[in-house]
Amino acid sequence: MSVTEHLYLDKQHPALWKAISGLGLKVQEAAEEAGIGRNLLELLNVRISQINGCAYCLDLHVRRAGEAGETSQRLAVLPAWRETSLFTDKERAALGLVESITELPDERAREQAEAVARQCLTAEEFSAVSWVAVTMNAFNRVSITSHHPVRRERS
User: Fold this and answer.
1) Are residues 97 and 109 in contact, defined by beta-carbon separation less than 8 angstroms?
2) Is residue 81 within 8 Å of 93, Cβ to Cβ?
3) Which CATH number is 38-145 given?
4) How many CB atoms lie within 10 A of CB 147?
5) Which of 12, 67, 90, 109 is 20 to 30 Å apart from 82, CA to CA?
6) pLDDT tens-digit map of 95-111
């Protein structure tokens, strides 16, 4: 392999990829058990991937969000969710929490995001949303580092 070829981390260490994929499935289960619907889960995955600039994960999770019933309007305005009334209080709390976990702002900003989230989310929901952020950030980093390609859709 030449140094100019992309090295796919998931292919180089398939056992590690299998482990992180297993964690992703467990996190999805925990989110569902906590009452985080598939729609919100995918919305969170999209927002985290937007922040990180992961084209591969955006392509995947925007598609999954649509399959889960998310509207194109809400996906279009997701980067500006604070500026709209299209999101519920629970969704806003979850979005603020995953943004905080993804961006790791200063302590005061993190505490504020966590306080808002704790007012709107149960402890189980808060934990599940936090795990969604932790694992999606890991998936983003694997895909960005690996340069996973976005395949053009066939018309």
Assistant:
1) no
2) no
3) 1.20.1290.10
4) 13
5) 67
6) 999 999 999 999 999 99
